Amino acid sequence: MSEMIFILYFFPLLSIPVNRAAGNRELGVGKVAETLLEPIGLLSDLISTTCFVIGGAFLFATIIKYIEHKRSPLMVPISTVIYLFIIGLVLVSLPFISLLTESGISYSLFK
User: Could you tell me the pTM of the whole model?
Assistant: First the structure.
């Protein structure tokens, strides 16, 4: 049953670049590559936005856990606060790596 749901939901998404390429009269390699890059750019934006949201949630959790640590240091160790803070910083800074490279797909807000 789950395989059928997977096929029904994700197969149309995989066939979008093929439909666009088939609609063009010129089927050059450049057109096909350009058509395939558009969904990858959307996926890149989705991953970058997800990194910002989850990283922000980790940084917010860091503040909450630090307040809990101040109340009861035995219940929430300081290492938990430090791990949450480091993971949050890494996730928030992950989309900025595309600014350091010349190749690759950059986040659309940085264009």
Answer: 0.64
